[in-house]
Design brief:
mainly alpha; 5 helices; 100 residues; elongated; 71% helix
Amino acid sequence: MAEILVDADWGLRLGGEETPSAVKVSLIEAKRQQLAQLKERRKPSNKLIYLINITINELTNLKKNLEAREHTLLYGRVTYLLRQIESELQDGLGSVDSAS
């Protein structure tokens, strides 16, 4: 089963200006937990570990800068990284077993 990292909640609630900051923070924290669990559940490749770690760091930056003008840029960057992780997982390159 494919891991879904970018869903409707991510786009509509986090990307929307009308969404309260508290809701955005909870979505960011849920995404961080999802990525941490993904790293623990699988035997990720080095590339996938790298992508997950960068994405977790960018989620932290996004959370810190929700009220800043740059938040839309950070949101776009995190969304791009999440899609890269999804792509790695769908291609089967996300685990050490398939890299051999």
